[in-house]
């Protein structure tokens, strides 16, 4: 039985696809924004002096990292519904994503914080800087630069995990695909188009992330440009290349 | 002349290892004291205790009238009076040279940005690195980084400066520039306490040299002490060229 | 307060774990074989091998597993292959795994210091011999923690097979929940089972990584 790919029935659905892509982008960006804030708080709390708090943070992180995102989102959405809390699907999906990315971001940021040489913290203490100031200026700022690649990867992984939100009927790109393919009966073509859209979104995110990195991390740019001008080899930018086996899934 | 730094009968152990066994020493205003000794003699530990990077088990430490060994000591006040320079410089790698110096000026001394910059450029000039203000630490040599570290501490106008083996990590040809800066500081009347291996420098510049051995102050004297050591331990130490 | 959750339900859940493990093993083993090939292609000096490998990795890493799953599932059926959900899911997971493992392992090979290659070259070893005898044995140590970490990912990823009807742990949970409507209890239990499967592997991966870092100091 021969079958040929026919994309033409999909053409009128372009605006629908783009809207789905936009919703995916929106959901992911919101989730990552709050997720990283949550992750930062958890990272500091886990390293803090309060043992109980530190323990709770560990439990949170390990629970999220060792269970599938699909199960987490079911637990949140259906679980809360069974207690009478009815959330709009977008909010539920975003919340589940925030909780998920918070755990991964916490580990990434904690690794960054731990890589700050102890000596610099001592020097800052001896200059009289307060604990908050040290936390921000001496620990968090260089850490964010170091773990920026890992955080970017996490953003991308989270965007792919957002596809799972379609399982609770949240509106995003995969849900859009499900609708379109049931309308047009061109299932394979629909999912191929959507796959390409996800790829396009990935490339877009990588480009934006690179741009933000160039602007925000003046140090890398300055050193790289100075090395290029002097004709010397560009020094390794000292990233944390640890692939934190992460990703929502 | 009352002493700015007073250690009296200080004991400190790390776990079961007794590192300081009753150290007493005084540093008067404007004095430069060099502390020498083999590794493990406790000299760095003693220095770190003065700025409360370590707490002591017994004895008292007083700096500018502040009781450092008091559990409720005001650390901010203490660290305003004491500046410390480390062996590994510990510059903030993600900030430029100028920003390194301005950080504490702005957030501890609460200076405005322009005033902080003025002070920063002033101390950078003093150590001869004004032209490197916009460079990042990794673009500088070890000697330059250490001079920036000295400038960073100096900018806070401390009453006493501690130097923990600040030239030990440097290539020999780079130690000279750092020692010159320290010499200028001494001539300006700064009270300085250095842990060092630079015997020639100590002999020439220090008002007093303290030799520590196995956690105790073993011998004290002027530069002549190095030519005519009284105790066999110091004699061995000097002969080994440590 | 269990509201209808019986021992039979519990047994059904536990039984489904077996299928989770089967799918995981299938995906991981086949994906490893594929991943090894992808890694070799990626590090090859021959452009016609390394370029497509790079595109393959970037493409697979850029799309959600769920979409890949749908493409494989619907792709197979429109071309006339009626396959059980296990095969479709296994195939999709295998492709996904091969791309990620290939990339992880390539990273480990790249991390091996150049002097190792140079020394082997000066001993007249061929590229393949160098890889086999010098580089890969050393890269294995570095590769173990992230590979075990990815195995954890694979186990979690099998939950998506539920979407195309394969009855593994998550689907079993959905089936039970659809009849007794106790989502908190059912999915909570499902979560616990996944945790029991994944946590020991996660810890193993972390402890291996710590030992590696100590050794490297």
UniProtKB/TrEMBL annotation, chain A:
The keyword Membrane applies. GO terms for cellular component: ATP-binding cassette (ABC) transporter complex. The keyword Lipid biosynthesis does not apply. One of its GO terms (molecular function) is transmembrane transporter activity. InterPro entries: AA_ABC_transptr_permease_3TM (IPR010065), ArtM/GltK/GlnP/TcyL/YhdX-like (IPR043429), MetI-like (IPR000515), MetI-like_sf (IPR035906). It is found in: Cell inner membrane; Cell membrane. One of its GO terms (biological process) is amino acid transport. Residues 21-209 form the ABC transmembrane type-1 domain. Keywords: Cell membrane, Membrane, Transmembrane, Transmembrane helix, Transport. The chain crosses the membrane at residues 20-45, 66-84, 90-109, 190-212. It is a multi-pass membrane protein. Belongs to the binding-protein-dependent transport system permease family. HisMQ subfamily. This is ABC amino acid transporter, inner membrane subunit. The lineage of its organism: Bacteria, Pseudomonadati, Pseudomonadota, Betaproteobacteria, Burkholderiales.
UniProtKB/TrEMBL annotation, chain B:
GO terms for cellular component: plasma membrane. It holds the Pfam family ABC_tran. It is found in: Cell membrane. Residues 5-239 form the ABC transporter domain. Its main location: membrane. GO terms for molecular function: ABC-type amino acid transporter activity; ATP binding; ATP hydrolysis activity. Keywords: Amino-acid transport, ATP-binding, Cell inner membrane, Cell membrane, Membrane, Nucleotide-binding, Transport. It is a peripheral membrane protein. Gene3D superfamilies: P-loop containing nucleotide triphosphate hydrolases. PANTHER family: AMINO ACID IMPORT ATP-BINDING PROTEIN, GLUTAMATE_ASPARTATE IMPORT ATP-BINDING PROTEIN GLTL. Belongs to the ABC transporter superfamily. This is Amino acid ABC transporter ATP-binding protein.
Automatic annotation (TrEMBL), chain C:
Signal peptide: none annotated. Its main location: membrane. It is found in: Cell inner membrane; Cell membrane. Keywords: Cell membrane, Membrane, Transmembrane, Transmembrane helix, Transport. Residues 17-205 form the ABC transmembrane type-1 domain. It comes from the Bacteria. NCBIfam families: HEQRo_perm_3TM. This is Polar amino acid transport system permease protein. The lineage of its organism: Bacteria, Pseudomonadati, Pseudomonadota, Betaproteobacteria, Burkholderiales.
């Amino acid at each position: 039985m021969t079958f040929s790919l026919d994309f033409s029935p999909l053409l009128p659905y372009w605006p629908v696809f783009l809207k789905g892509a936009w919703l995916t982008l929106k959901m992911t960006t919101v989730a990552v924004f709050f997720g990283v804030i949550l992750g930062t708080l958890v990272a500091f709390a886990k390293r803090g002096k309060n043992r109980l708090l530190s323990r709770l943070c560990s439990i949170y992180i390990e629970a999220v990292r060792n269970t599938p995102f699909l199960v987490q989102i079911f637990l949140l959405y259906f679980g809360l519904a069974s207690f009478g809390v009815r959330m709009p699907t977008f909010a539920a999906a975003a919340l589940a994503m925030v909780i998920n990315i918070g755990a991964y971001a916490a580990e990434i940021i904690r690794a960054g914080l731990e890589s700050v040489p102890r000596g610099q913290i001592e020097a800052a203490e001896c200059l009289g800087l307060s604990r908050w100031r040290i936390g921000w200026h001496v620990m968090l700022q260089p850490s964010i630069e170091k773990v920026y690649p890992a955080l970017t990867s996490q953003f991308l992984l989270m965007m792919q995990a957002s596809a799972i939100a379609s399982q609770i009927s949240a509106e995003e790109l995969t849900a859009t695909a499900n609708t379109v393919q049931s309308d047009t009966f061109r299932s394979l073509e629909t999912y191929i188009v959507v796959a390409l859209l996800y790829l396009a979104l990935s490339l877009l995110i990588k480009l934006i992330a690179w741009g933000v990195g160039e602007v925000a991390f003046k140090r890398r740019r300055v050193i790289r440009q100075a090395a290029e001008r002097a004709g010397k080899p560009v020094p390794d930018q000292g990233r944390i290349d640890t692939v934190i086996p992460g990703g929502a899934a | 002349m009352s002493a700015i730094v007073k250690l009296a009968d200080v004991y400190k152990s790390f776990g079961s290892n007794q590192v300081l066994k009753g150290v007493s020493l005084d540093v008067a205003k404007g004095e430069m004291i060099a502390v020498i000794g083999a590794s493990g003699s406790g000299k760095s530990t003693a220095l770190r205790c003065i700025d409360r990077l370590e707490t002591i088990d017994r004895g008292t430490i007083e700096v500018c009238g502040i009781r450092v060994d008091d559990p409720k000591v005001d650390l901010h006040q203490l660290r305003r009076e004491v500046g410390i320079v480390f062996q590994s410089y510990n510059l903030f790698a993600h900030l430029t040279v100028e920003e390194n110096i301005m950080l504490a000026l702005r957030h501890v001394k609460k200076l405005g940005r322009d005033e902080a910059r003025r002070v920063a450029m002033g101390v950078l000039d003093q150590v001869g690195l004004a032209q490197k203000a916009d460079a990042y630490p990794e673009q500088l040599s070890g000697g330059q980084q250490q001079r920036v570290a000295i400038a960073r501490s100096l900018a806070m106008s401390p009453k006493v400066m501690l130097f923990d083996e600040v030239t030990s990590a440097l290539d020999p040809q780079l130690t000279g520039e750092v020692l010159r800066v320290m010499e200028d500081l001494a001539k300006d009347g700064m009270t300085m306490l250095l842990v060092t291996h630079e015997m020639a420098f100590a002999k020439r510049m220090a008002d007093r040299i303290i030799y520590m051995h196995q956690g105790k102050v073993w011998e004290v004297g002027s530069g002549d002490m190095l030519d005519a050591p009284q105790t066999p331990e110091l004699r061995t130490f000097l002969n080994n060229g440590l | 307060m269990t509201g209808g959750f019986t021992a039979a339900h519990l047994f059904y859940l536990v039984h489904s774990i077996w299928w989770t493990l089967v799918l995981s093993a299938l995906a991981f083993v086949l994906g490893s074989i594929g991943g090894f090939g992808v890694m070799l292609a990626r590090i090859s000096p021959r452009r016609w091998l390394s370029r497509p490998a790079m595109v393959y990795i970037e493409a697979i890493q850029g799309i959600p597993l769920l979409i890949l799953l749908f493409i494989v599932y619907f792709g197979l059926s429109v071309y006339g292959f009626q396959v059980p959900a296990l095969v479709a899911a296994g195939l999709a997971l295998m492709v996904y795994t091969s791309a990620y493992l290939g990339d992880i392992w390539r990273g480990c090979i790249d991390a091996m210091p150049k002097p190792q290659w140079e020394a082997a070259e000066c001993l007249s070893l061929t590229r393949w011999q160098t890889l086999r005898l010098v580089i890969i044995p050393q890269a294995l140590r570095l590769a173990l923690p992230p590979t075990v970490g990815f195995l954890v990912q694979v186990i979690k990823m099998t939950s998506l097979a539920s979407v195309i009807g394969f009855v593994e742990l998550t689907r079993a949970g959905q089936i039970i929940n659809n009849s007794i409507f106790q989502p908190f209890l059912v999915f909570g239990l499902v979560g616990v089972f996944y945790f029991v499967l994944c946590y020991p592997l996660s810890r193993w991966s972390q402890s291996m990584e710590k030992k590696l870092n100590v050794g490297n100091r």
